[in-house]
Structure formats: C-alpha cells, structure tokens
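Exam revision sheet. Question 4 asks you to relate a sequence to its structure. Input first:
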Amino acid sequence: MNAPVRNPLCQRARLSLPSFMQIVAGFARGDSASRLSVEVGVSTKSVNSIYQRLRRRIARERERLNPFAPLSIVARERRVRGRRPQCGETVPRLVGVRRVQHQLVCEWVNADNASQAFRILYGQIPASRSLDCWGYQGLIDLDTGRVRRLCTSPHSVASDPLHPLSLEQLSASIRGRMVASQGWPKTHLYLHLKESEWRHGYLGRDPLPDLLKLLRACPI
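Answer key, structure tokens:
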C-alpha cells in the first residue's frame, strides 16, 4: 500500500496535495465552494472548511499591517436601517479605512465611536481632530455604499474615485465579494471583510503565487 503524499501546506488535510492545490487555486480565483467541490470531487463542506482556514490565515497576515485591534462581532447585533446607533452599540457595517504604504487596511468602527462616525459620514457634524486618535482616513457604510474621506494628506487614501487606493474602489471590491458569495454569514463577517481587503490589493494581478508563499511559511 502506497503511503499518502505529505501535504506541506496543510497540517491536518486528508486530501492529496494535487487536490488541495486545486482548492487553493479555486479560492484565489474566487470560485464558489459548490462549484469547486464538483471539480475536485470532494464535498462542499470540506471545501468550505478549507476556505475558512484560508480566510483565517489571510486575516492573521493582514493584521500585521492593520493598526487596529480586531473586534468580535456578535451574530445578533446588526444595524437597523433608519435608526441612529447609540454609543456602546456594535455597528458591524460601518468600516474605517487607513492607508499603510501601498495597501488599504480596514476595520469595523469601534462601537463607542459609531454614533459620532455615522454623523460625520452623513455630514451631520464636521470631521474633528478627535478622529486622529481613531487612525481612520476614511469611512465606508457597507449598507448604502456611502464613503467619506477624513484626511487629505499625500499619504492618505486617494481622492480619485478610479484610483485603486480610493475608498470608492475598495467599497466596490467589498460589495462585489458580498454579491459573489450571496451575502456574508454574520458569524464570519470579519473574515470575509479581511478577505475582500486582501483581494483588493491584487486588482489585475494573480494572488495565487503570494497565497502559496504564505502557506509555505505558515501552513493552515
């Protein structure tokens, strides 16, 4: 009996290395788990499990660029349209963005600052210096697609809506992933957000080589 081929990219995978490589390549292309399961010949549950582990690895890598601490999102907490959030409530659909070198990193706005951030986003109050301590250079409302720049320095997010480092392009990338995946589960909002942020950095480029390099350094 032939011994199974060791998979250096996944520590607990029962799949062969070629099958696992097909799944990783499908994830890089943005294929759905159901479509990829038919192509590889494994269950959709197995593909989704590997997809989630890839998202966790990507999120952990992106957090090295991210100056904000990740916030845990409770599934039942959501924004109610037409109701202004109160201080202390979690509003997971409001995203703060900051430029780090040639990358855009994003994070859910802190619950304690959500009420003021929404008023700034919709022009009810002017942006104040208190935003500097948040570290945000822009705000995005994922429900409506509205964006607001908070900083106009040369090293902030781009002002040209067509520039890859603009809030408009990042918002389009995030909403595009939401449509492609037919919505995000509330329990995994953070992982999907970081995946969208990661994919946005590869507009027009193939992310597979860098993803394989990441898995070789830190297997899932």
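Marking note for examiners. The chain is about 40% helix and 10% strand.
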